[in-house]
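Thread title: Can someone regenerate the structure for this chain?

I was given the following input by a collaborator and told the matching structure tokens would be attached. They weren't. Posting the sequence so someone can regenerate them.
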Amino acid sequence: MTGRTFVDSNVLVYARDTRDRAKQARAADWLAMLWRARTGRIGIQVLSEYYVTVTRKLRPGLSADEAWDDVRLLMSWRPQPLDEQLLEHGRDIERRFRLSWWDSLVVAAAQLQDCSTLLSEDFQNGMEFDTVVVSNPFALKAGESGPPYNVAETAIPRHRPRGRPKRRE
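Best answer:
Regenerated them for you:
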């Protein structure tokens, strides 16, 4: 695998989650490879999700200080800011690919950072969003890429549908 890799929050959380040792080890392998290659990228949204998840939802969780140390370290990955450009691009992704708002922002942040790979378990392994291909870190070994899986763009209707409204029963 070459090029920049955008890391989703679930990968970061699994690297700290002791309840699933296999996923923890796989996530740690991926992160170590990205640190060595200096190709890891991230977004402010991802860092926020990570912090909240490991301090409030993960059991056993991290202390706020431990989680903040991780966030500060990951700041060296040049996080994509949550700004007007990201929101506009995220809206375009949401409409074109019919993704959830939060997933659209992750894909948009990966694209804005010129990443070729999005490391996440929240999408089908091999999905392609224009120039970004999803790699599921738990389906592949660190650095491995899977077969492509094209996502069809959905046509955006320009007008409201016509006809009689559907009855509610």
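Residues 9-150 form a domain with the Rossmann fold fold (CATH 3.40.50.1010).
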